[in-house]
Design goal:
elongated, 9-stranded mixed sheet, single chain, alpha+beta, Immunoglobulin-like, 6-stranded mixed sheet, 7 helices, 430 residues, 25 strands
């Protein structure tokens, strides 16, 4: 693959090959004189081009547009892991280069002759040979190289190492067609007088930066076990007292099919890198089992987890499908002291499990919400909230909820009909 100087490298190769055309035996025998080949903007050519008979013969290449190559655009994606930092691979940047080839002359029919030789070269060179590209690039830093008007150009040194001759795709030249309106718009934008011009495309340039990436080790042995039918399937998770989210210490019931050989369950949360195995399982049958969440845990933050069971299948261990399980936060410093209405009002709360950096946290007193006084900078169970304005509750106690990543701490008793509020509450006095 080439590097970021690949675009300059393609232009330099084309410029060199065109110079060879006008210094070859066919052109030399025509006695039309020497030809200067450049690769600058047309307005610069016009300002530097002579007037009248002393104007000389000139051929100019101008890169007027760069587009993504449709065939290569989505190759090798994504390049980064979910953390946004770990480099997985170095996908190439695939580009098509769009050029204008313009000829300049001051005598009758000379411009047409220049254009004819250029078109013949493009027709006979639809693919640029690798050896030819390498030869041109190697000769760029030669101070006596007559092919370029500025042999001391400092960009030639890195361009010579661009590597376009070694990329996996060959570089191909394809004629393009621009309508009269497009051509008129281009030359108007270039602020230069129109001269005989031929548009063409060079494809495909692959730019690929070499960044160290992670690479998985090869698999030494594959152990594949074929079972008739499904080994085991989880269909439902039930929580104590019909709560919407589990709390630490709760016993969770899992229902499914073919679960008789269940050995353990795994709680996983990709966001925080948690993959916690839990065992033993209790009350296990072919259709259900139970497991208990640890009463305290520093590595099990409140949030949504995927629960999967590990089953014994012959001599191998296999995993079932996954079902979501929400683990709710809990307020531990209860009862909470009464609060006084005002602005602002700080409130200190202790919680379980610990909160992790990056979690969104708020405290709700009744329907009034407060945010953290400062963002979480380290794993902690001590939280400080500030109500910008806290209204009185009129002498009544109202439920208090801790909301972490959209999951509320439990405040309802679902065993009663109809359900009632329970759990932490607080009174806000005038």
């Amino acid at each position: 693959m080439s590097n970021a100087f690949g675009i300059s490298g393609v232009t330099a190769v084309l410029e060199s090959l065109l110079w060879s055309v006008y210094n070859g035996p066919d052109w030399t025998s025509s006695n039309l004189g020497s030809v200067t080949v450049t690769a600058v903007a047309p307005d610069l050519v016009q300002s530097n081009h002579g007037n009248g008979a002393d104007a000389g013969l000139k051929v100019n290449l101008f890169l007027h547009q760069v587009t993504f190559n449709a065939a290569w655009r989505n190759m090798g994606l994504p390049s980064l892991a979910a953390d946004g930092v770990t480099q997985l691979k170095n996908p190439p940047l695939a580009l098509d280069l769009h050029y204008l080839l313009t000829v300049y002359a001051s005598e009758d029919c000379q411009a047409e002759a220049l254009l004819g030789y250029a078109l013949q070269f493009i027709h006979e060179s639809p693919v640029l040979p690798r050896a030819q590209i390498r030869s041109v690039l190697a000769n760029l830093t030669n101070p006596t190289n007559p092919e370029f008007p500025s042999p001391t150009n400092p960009v030639f040194s890195p361009v010579s190492l661009s590597g376009i001759g070694d990329q996996i795709e060959m570089i191909k030249i394809t004629p393009e067609t621009l309508g009269r309106e497009e051509m008129a718009w281009l030359w108007t934008a270039l602020k230069a007088d129109y001269r005989p011009t031929f548009p063409f495309q060079v494809s495909v340039l692959l730019i690929q930066q070499q960044i160290p990436a992670v690479s998985a080790l090869p698999v030494l042995q594959r152990d594949i076990t074929v079972q008739s039918g499904l080994v085991g399937t989880l269909t439902q998770i039930s929580l104590p007292n019909s709560q919407p989210a589990a709390s630490l210490g709760d016993t969770v019931t899992v229902a499914g099919t073919s679960l008789g050989s269940a050995q353990s369950v795994t709680l996983s949360n990709a966001r925080f890198g948690v993959a916690l195995p839990l065992s033993p399982l209790t009350n296990g049958t072919d259709n259900s089992f139970q497991f208990s969440l640890p009463p305290t845990a520093t590595n099990l933050p409140a949030g949504v987890y995927l629960v999967s069971a590990q089953l014994k299948a012959g001599t191998a261990n296999v995993s079932t499908n996954s079902l979501p399980l929400a683990i709710a936060p809990q307020i531990t410093n209860v009862p909470l002291p009464a609060l006084k209405a005002g602005s602002p009002v700080p409130v200190a709360v202790q919680c379980s499990p610990d909160l992790f950096v990056g979690q969104q946290v708020s405290l709700l007193v009744g329907s009034q919400e407060a945010l953290l006084a400062a963002p979480i900078s380290t794993q902690s169970s001590a939280l400080q909230f500030v109500f910008k304005t806290l209204q009185s509750t009129g002498g009544a106690s109202v439920p208090v909820r801790l909301r972490v990543d959209g999951i509320d701490s439990p405040i309802m008793d679902m065993t009663q009909t109809p359900p009632v509020f329970s759990g932490p509450s607080v009174q806000v006095n005038p």
